[in-house]
Specification:
alpha+beta, 2,3-Dihydroxybiphenyl 1,2-Dioxygenase, domain 1, eight-stranded mixed sheet, EC 1.13.11.93, 10 strands, HGLS, oxidoreductase, two-stranded antiparallel sheet, iron
């Protein structure tokens, strides 16, 4: 499989469960914009065979290399970001993993049971199957009480958590505020955790995002509507070298993770 086909498959799956992204994409295309993707994010568990190191190996076969390491203590996450080594037009890849062994014994029990079901699958197979886990609605809520991230992953599986528009390449928007204003005027709900805009020029990155779309998930006992995926927007600033900053800001990313938080959407 080529990288282009992989990205097309990821996008098709993503918009199938995140209609908000397709809506925004179409709004901008109607305004004559050419949309460039800054990065794609994925969630996983810190477990042999499916952690961020294994995912890094998977993406390295497509020309990617690690460029940054991050840690989110409160959310119990490790993360890295990858950049394509020969073609900067390809999106960055942001990989995060839940240190689930820092959760309660009950949460670990649920997660380890699910991990066991897929332990023999490759990263490629996990992405192809996507909905690899099967938990009950009560187990979902148990996980939700401890880790919204873990609950999301067990409900949605291995797929892109979000895509990101690079605001720098938009022609009609001079800043992130203007884009946010347009989206709000269209009735689109944005993530307000930490403010509509996370970051500032001093850290060379500003970000905002929608709240996640909602989809029906079939749990083992019944179906329920839960948050799926969201669309992010990134405005990058130039370093003293004149090159755009390509990394991520932990404090800002921590708030972006809240885009799938049901409580915040209420």
């Amino acid at each position: 499989m080529s990288l282009d086909i992989l990205l097309e498959d990821l996008w098709s799956d993503y918009i199938s469960i995140a209609p908000i992204a397709k809506e925004i994409h179409d709004i901008l295309l109607e305004q004559g914009e050419e949309i460039n993707n800054d990065h794609i994010a994925f969630r996983t568990f810190s477990s042999k065979g499916m952690g961020i190191e294994e995912m890094e190996v998977f993406f390295s076969a497509f020309g990617y290399a690690r460029k940054g390491d991050y840690s989110f203590s409160e959310k119990k996450l490790n993360a890295i970001h990858l950049e394509h080594q020969s073609d900067a037009t390809y999106p960055k890849i942001f990989l995060s993993e839940l240190r689930y062994k820092e959760l309660s014994a009950r949460a670990q029990e649920i997660i380890e049971r699910e991990i066991t079901k897929v332990k023999d699958l490759s990263i490629s197979e996990l992405f192809k199957k996507k909905d690899v886990f099967s938990i009950s609605s009560s187990e979902y809520r148990e996980l939700l009480d401890e880790s919204e991230y873990g609950a999301w992953l067990c409900a949605l599986g291995f797929r892109a958590n979000h895509f990101t528009i690079l605001v720098n390449t938009l022609k009609k928007f001079n800043n992130l505020n203007e884009l946010n204003d347009l989206l709000i005027s269209k009735g689109i709900s944005l993530n307000r955790a930490g403010g509509l805009i996370k970051g500032n020029p001093d850290v060379y990155l500003e970000q905002s995002s929608t709240m996640a779309s909602r989809i029906e998930v079939k749990f083992t006992d019944k179906s329920e509507t839960v948050p799926s995926c969201y669309y992010e927007f990134a405005l990058r600033y130039s370093l003293s070298s004149g090159e755009l900053y390509q990394g991520f800001v932990t404090n800002s990313a921590d708030k972006i993770f809240e885009s799938t938080n049901d409580e915040l959407a209420k």
